[in-house]
User: Fold these one by one.
Assistant:
Number 1:
Amino acid sequence: MTRRRFSPHALRARRTQLGVSQKKLAEVLNVAPATVCDWENGRKTPANHRLPDLATVLYCPMDDLFEAVAA
């Protein structure tokens, strides 16, 4: 069975692809800009309840924000 984890790189790639700043993403999600920075740098992971909103704002399926991890 393949495990999956949140991908900071996928988040940054999708956000920049859409031309959205960290500050704007933070405003829409009602979090601090430093929180988005922490997510993108792998220091923190978004809470599970934030993932659907994050995917909606970034116009992508939630699965696109995850990566496979070797078991």
Note: The chain has four helices and two strands.
Number 2:
Amino acid sequence: MTSLTGLRHLTTLRALHVDRCKEITDLTEVGELTGLTDLDLNGCAGIEDLTPIGRLTELTRLNLHRCRAVVVDLNVKGVDWRDLSPWPVTGTSASCGCGCPN
């Protein structure tokens, strides 16, 4: 999979698991999935910008393991990073905590 184009219409989707799709870089479509509670982007190394998921007010689980390019912006409006697991977030940017060289 190289793109998430077309997902925006699945507004009742509760969980999305995209595993090791290194070509995916844009989460704009995911940001329209307002019912999403579980987002797993394990190994999607091309993702850098998490701004689109700021609209996911129902999100309770976010897995960014092996998303080496991601820098968490704790000011993304609408996301309470403290409530998201298994991602431990501290300070103004964070690594995934898995020991990988982010």
Note: The domain at 1-79 is CATH 3.80.10.10 (Leucine-rich repeat, LRR (right-handed beta-alpha superhelix)).
Number 3:
Amino acid sequence: MKCLCARPGLHCHNGSSSSCVYIQPSVHCLRLCPLFEVKKLGYLQLSHQLHGNQSLCYHSYHKSCGEHRDDSNEIDFHVKIPKTAFISKFRMTIDGQTYDGVVKQKEEAQQQYSQAVSRGQSAGLVSSVGRTLEDFKTSVTIAAHSKVTFELTYEELLHRRLGKYELLINAQPGQIVKDFKIDVNIYEKPGINFLEVKGSLGEKSLANAITTTRADKQAWVSFYPTHGQQMDCDGCGETGLKGDLKILYDVDRPRSQGDVTEHGGYFVHFFAPADLARIPKNVVFIIDQSGSMHGKKIAQTRGALLKILDDLAEDDYFGLILFNSNVSPWKRELLQATQTNLEMAKQFVKGITDHGATDINAAVLKGVEMIQQHPRNGSASILILLTDGDPTSGETNQGKIQSNVRKAIGKKFPLYCLGFGFDVNFEFLQKMAQENSGLARRIYEDSDAAQQLKGFYEEVATPLLTSVQINYTGATNLTQTTFSYYYNGSEIVVAGKDP
């Protein structure tokens, strides 16, 4: 793993990463600046470049230039970047003099940002906004007849989900742009076998502003909206465009052992075998029905569970556990997903109501017990916890709960934690999932919450391999090489240093 450390400067990054950002040297990367807002400018040019590659991470950049004015003025720079990305470079150039920024860890960033602002200095801060994006904002005051150029680079590892990589580009310039351009260039050594463009910026009157080209190992996507299209599209007006482009693609996988690429003494191994038989699963859903789940949350949970039950295969086994201050399994044992059992389960789900406190500890331990009491050779076991709050009943010490769950599971199967809404203690759920070979996902309290729940389940619904161990002779500095499961449509990525 390479270590990328920032240089001294005024600009701060309020992310969750440490001051020394670790990157895999040969991974899918997204580096572009998808949104900015510049006030008091008569001319503005926006240019995006993206290069995703299995062998190299290329830097790309974006620049916006101010016009000459007869008085001094403050220029704002506003960018939305994916939550999973990190800023690797930010600089301002004012009348030919360049000022480099620095990426700081969260606490130090907040302190230095506040100090810089109080002194009247330029400073930038990243903060969370919405489901998938974070805001980066900064401003600078320039003298009359001066010009400022902003340049920001960020990088992101793209994760393969449901058989596709997704590049998310947000455009919201806050004004009509004279020369608005988004250019995306994707290069994949194994070859590109699928390309699709979605999102609000690719719909209706803006659809003909998009051009796509594909040729074996490369693909290009261009988005060049005219002045009129920026004015007349749905939701547009004097503030210009406001929306997203989603570029979905996948690569050829001609070799079952995956693709290995090397660069600068490092290697990366992409492993996503196809044509494997699915493994029957044992899945237990642990559902919070405490009083805080009242209203839309519990209704959407019921709707999602009904759809998920329809997707279970007949050779799957399943269990349902409801919990508040008490733990209430639907049945004492796992049941086969026969049509009769599924219909009974659906009737039970339709009757779920909300009341009481939240005993997460007892509920998860009960789920572990249910799976352990009904072992089944040749199957994959999965626990899925859905909650919207902190533990308020039974064991409430979060560290103790995490320890109890870790000891009970004993690395035998993964725990996935779904946090419903903004009030949930997501860090608690995230740590508990990561300690048990799973992951945590925030479910946003919107009209599509049921689809978010079902979408997550689809990612783990089809296990293809269990107890995956990948060995490399003589390699060092390896990332994770042991994986509980490999799921259909996903990808295992391992990086390391060549012997």
Note: The first strand starts at residue 2 and ends at 5.
Number 4:
Amino acid sequence: MKLAQGCLGQNARKHTMILFTGEDNLEGKPIEIFIQENQHLKELVKIHKNRYHVLNNRDTSNETQVDELLKKINDLYKQNNKEFYTKEQESPDPDHQTVMQSVKGSWDTDVKCRTSKSTGVNCPIN
């Protein structure tokens, strides 16, 4: 993790969520117990303010787990003032910021549509 943080910069941590795949390999053990039993994982999750999500790879028909992940990503995005992480945040480049504003707008629409479809709320864009 220190290597990744060194490459990405200090600001990356507040934009990071840990994604655990393979919940099905835990054989019924809750992810919380799995994390508590491993000191390195416990520290990693703590450093990232308990922002994590777990996916069951074998339950491909369960769209709820993807919807929950998208909601968590959207919540994190909102917590970060609707900004994605870029290495350039440490030394802003005006051209890069223009591109990111465009991406930011499409992210808002995409996430709203995805979550709207799962909740049955009418989505403005199909």
Note: Strands lie at 18-21, 52-55.
